Amino acid sequence: MNSRSPLRSGAALVAALAVATTLFGCAPSASDRPLIVVTTNILGDVVEQIVGDEAEVLTLMRPNADPHSFEISAQEASQILRADLVVSNGLGLEEGLQQHLGAADDEGVPSLVAGDVIDVLNYSINSPDPHFWTDPERMLDVVAALTDAISTEVDGVDAATIAAQADDYTAQLRALDEEMATAFAAIDEGQRNLVTNHHVFGYLAQRFDFTVVGAVIPGGSTLAAPSASDLRDLVTAINTTGVTTIFAESSQPDRLVQVLADEAGVDVAVVELFTESLSEDGAGADSYLSMMRTNTQRIATGLSP
User: Fold this and answer.
1) Which structural domain range is residue 153 located in?
2) How far is CA 50 from CA 53, 88, 281, in A?
3) What number is the average pLDDT over the span 252-258?
């Protein structure tokens, strides 16, 4: 028979709850931390490396999504409005999120547009290229701007911790840049030509001395479509330069690239790259650094005789 009375058991429960409150009441829950909302998963990964446990990071774009066309839920849209900081790519990349980003700006939500802090390349006059992350040197500028914005705009984070984590990530970016330069230096000058689904390699080409022969889809958006003359011009360029590999993006089907390979009338290989989105865990591009290393290896192999 249990000798404890209900009154004593209840008192013990109250005491236990009081101890738990004392032990854990000072530890903030995830919801108590500042909120940083990031549009793309590439920038989301970079922000997470800088922030660590200092803030909650909500990345809107899912793995393997297309940044030009992905959509968000009503709940995610509301979180943008209550964020302590909104980080976006800019330069026209997030075409489906403009109304939400505009609403946050109207509400005075602090923001950082990564495209505003880098040296921008243009496809043509008034057509900026948003794919700056293909150049690790430009990502160093983004990390510096993120570090400053997080430290000054987001209340409740420890600036010294943010700075230390940013320094560590900066060192990793510099190491990545050196690895890429070494791998690409082994490619013969006559083989340093790039063709992909759409124009995504302008920054990489400038940084590592490649020539962008062309793209199946003209311009910087996957929402555009190639015309018959576009394809004819690209076939001519491929035949002239002797390109033997075409690169297809993981977020886009490679049907058009396969058609182009058939139209070119030459033996052209199609190699998949991760260019606009990270992958799920373990698929070769689950972080910005792993994505760039995977692409570097595939480009170097694809363009070597």
Assistant:
1) 30-180
2) 9, 16, 20
3) 58
